[in-house]
Design a protein that fits this description.
Radius of gyration: 35 Å
CATH superfamily of the largest domain: Putative Large Serine Recombinase, Chain B, Domain 2
GO molecular function: DNA binding; DNA strand exchange activity
CATH topology of the largest domain: Hect, E3 ligase catalytic domain fold
Largest sheet: 2 strands, antiparallel
Number of domains: 3
Strand order of the largest sheet: 1-2
Oligomer: single chain
Protein name: Recombinase domain-containing protein
Number of strands: 8
CATH architecture of the largest domain: Alpha-Beta Complex
Order of helices and strands: HEEHHHEEHHHHHEEHEE
Number of helices: 10
Strand content: 5-15%
């Protein structure tokens, strides 16, 4: 008993010390974790404030360089030749070239990636969709005008976006149509098997309900894709038809359409006085070819018009 009495206190001290050591370690780790989370929150808030101020603080996009604008860290344009290659890239797509052909052309003119290696197709396509080139900082679910100079205009950039996504729209439309056709064929097959008692009626009913629901969803998707798709050949065809018989188009149009057409033909308006009548030079050229035009009678709201 004496020996046991002498040995108990050391064991008790060891246990207490071990427990104290574990608690301390956990407390220190928790404090460090809280400090890290606070630093993360402060950093995130600072980056959001930077984006809202229009500053770009990440690695510069292709043909920009990290620098300072008005003494504050942001983006600066690279040398003029490399900037012109970016503008040339957007111009090629805007002119109607495919991404592959435009990439081949711009490679031959000397555009490379940041490391100097050959520009890949994915990098080229990502570059064409990068809003930094129209002076936008996009991050943290925000899109803010930057404090740096754009490389391309908004009009060119968004025309290029429509061309880049047109193939996806066409492919998506074809995929949805194919799926609808497949569902209809499967429905016919299932019904025939039900007639010949190959499949139970309960299973047929379940299949047809699921197929019908999916078909409705696909039709909605098809309508959305169709509304967003621009059929360029049809638009051009209709445009040439209008230009070929402008007088008939004028007679058939309502007042709103005629007003739009007048605004197109007379973008700076029409001026009339006691002895003067003025319009734009391109319209005045019609008077140099009187044998090719006839006069269309006025409809009440508009003046007599030349029929080309």
């Amino acid at each position: 008993m004496g020996i046991l009495a002498m040995q108990v206190p050391p064991f008790a001290c060891v246990l207490v010390r071990l427990q104290d050591k574990d608690i301390s370690r956990h407390l220190v780790a928790t404090e460090a974790q809280c400090d890290n989370e606070k630093r993360i929150d402060n950093c995130t808030e600072g980056m959001i404030a930077t984006v809202e101020a229009g500053r770009y603080i990440w690695l510069a996009s292709l043909r920009y360089v990290n620098g300072r604008v008005k003494g504050i860290r942001s983006l600066e344009l690279d040398e003029s030749r490399t900037v012109s290659l970016i503008q040339r890239s957007f111009g090629l797509i805007d002119a109607g070239l495919t991404v592959t052909k435009a990439l081949q052309q711009i490679r031959s003119e000397g555009l490379t990636c940041r490391t100097g290696h050959e520009l890949s197709r994915n990098t080229f396509r990502s570059m064409l969709m990068n809003k930094v080139y129209v002076d936008y900082v996009v991050s943290f679910a925000r899109a803010v005008r930057g404090d740096f100079d754009p490389i391309v205009s908004d009009d060119v950039f968004y025309r290029v976006q429509s061309k880049l996504h047109r193939k996806w729209v066409r492919d998506e439309r074809n995929r949805v149509k194919s799926r609808i056709v497949f569902l209809k064929q499967e429905n016919e097959t299932i019904i025939q098997k039900s007639i010949h008692h190959v499949i139970p009626d309960a299973m047929v009913k379940e299949w047809l309900e699921k197929a019908s629901a999916e078909e409705e969803v696909l039709k909605c998707q098809l309508a959305l894709v169709a509304d967003s798709a621009l059929d360029t050949p049809e638009v051009l065809k209709r445009g040439f038809e209008i230009l070929g018989d402008l007088g008939s188009f004028w007679e058939e149009s309502n007042l709103t359409t005629r007003q739009y057409l007048q605004e197109f033909v007379f973008p700076r308006g029409v001026t009339a006085g006691k002895s003067k009548f003025g319009t734009v030079p391109r319209v005045l050229q019609l008077w140099n070819r009187p044998e090719s035009v006839t006069v269309v009678a006025a409809g009440g709201f508009e003046p007599s018009t030349l029929r080309v």
